[in-house]
Amino acid sequence: MKALFLAGGMGTRLRPLTNQIPKPMVPVMVRPLLERTMTKLKGYGIEQIVLSTCYQPQQIEEYFGDGGRLGLKIEYIREDIPLGTGGAIKNTEKFFDGPFIVFNSDILCDINIEELIRFHRSKSAVATIAVTQVDNPSMYGVIEFDRDDYIVSFKEKPHPSEITSNYINAGIYVFEPDVLREIPSGRAVSVEREVFPSLLQKGYQIAVYKGGSYWMDIGTPAKYLQAHKDILSGRCKIPEADYTSNIIFTGKNSKIHPHARIIGPVYIGEHAEIGAFATIGPYTVIGNHCVIGRGSKVAGSIVWDKVTVDSGARLIDTIVADNCRIHRNMEFCKTVYTQQVSHPMAM
Ligand code: GDD
Ligand code: MG
To answer: Where are the alpha helices (DSSP H) in the chain?
Structure first.
């Protein structure tokens, strides 16, 4: 089976991080989320991928190329103007002649794809939507289903007064090609607002798949930090981590000064240097090629690549984008710090 990733959104709620890079390229534990998800799919034998891009497509294309480096075969389809989720799916019609998987690109989850496909086949539905339960469903597609797990209603981002279920669309689907035929062409279409309700109205059966124990949309800075906490604590596991250790991963050629204080769980990338009397952690990620100065403190923070933290600086619950420098004795708490902004944004 082939998989399609919807990777064209602007990532507005993750600004300013997404001013520089498209959301699918935002690193999760030092590697782009899209890479992590595609690698997981490869583990299920899914090696043919279609990437539907629009916002900053060249960064995605340059990084992944034809997919050979990851053992995948990646094809691209680019929109000049956003076609919406449904229009983007319609645009990929030529790639699919059988059932296929669709992923939103900002989802971190532990869904068993093999089980999802098996479930879809058993339901003889035109589509299967993976669902998950959340406390506040109003930011998502809210789904009601019957006792046989077929959808009764789909409401995208309903007003809180209209919420009748805490099951939401997890942004992972299996579609039969009939879905493609039902999407109007030549204009922007939302799969959530238009296609799902219309399929239901026409009497098509859409099944819900409730498997999977971890799910998170990393679409806001707060959720991005939470996703990292969940990985660091082992609630959502990544393959390279050693969860019995204080430092769950250390990349090659990293140097930690013997007088640095590491409070786990911490993840350290490649070629990183942690200076004397620096305190790192808990719940902290230090990216590749970072230099963390003497006596500084980095806690609850996600530091991307090539960042310098000068001596005595403090970062608490903060995200620092690539190539930034945190000057001596500066202190940031609950901040998204990027090179492009002269005034860091509070979360
Ligand atoms: N190619 C393309 N073109 N991709 C797009 C476009 C477009 O015009 N618009 C959005 N996308 C991609 C985004 O990059 C993202 O991967 C995915 O489609 C969903 O867009 P989001 O902007 O992240 O949507 P959302 O988070 O508000 O809601 C969606 O995800 C929720 C789960 O996280 C919906 O599918 C909800 O129903 C769902 O609950
Ligand atoms: Mg999203």
So the answer is: 17-20, 33-43, 57-64, 84-90, 113-123, 177-181, 196-201, 221-233
Structure tokens at 7: 């990777």
Q: Which residues, in sequence order, are bridge partners of residue 83? A: none
Helix (H, G, I), strand (E, B) or coil at 323: coil
| Residue minimizing CA distance to atom 20 of ligand 1 | 9
pLDDT tens column, 29-60: 999 999 999 999 999 999 999 999 999 999 99
Q: How far apart are CA 273 and CA 337, in angstroms?
A: 20
Question: So which residues are the catalytic ones?
Answer: 157
Distance from the alpha carbon of residue 233 to the mean position of ligand 2, in angstroms:
23
> Where in the chain are the domains?
2-217, 241-346
CATH topology (fold) of 241-346:
UDP N-Acetylglucosamine Acyltransferase; domain 1 (2.160.10)
Q: Could you tell me the pTM of the whole model? A: 0.94
For atom 10 of ligand 1, the residue with the nearest CA is 9
Q: Is the CB of 217 under 6 A from ligand 1?
A: yes
Ligand 1 atom showing the smallest separation from residue 106 Cα: 16
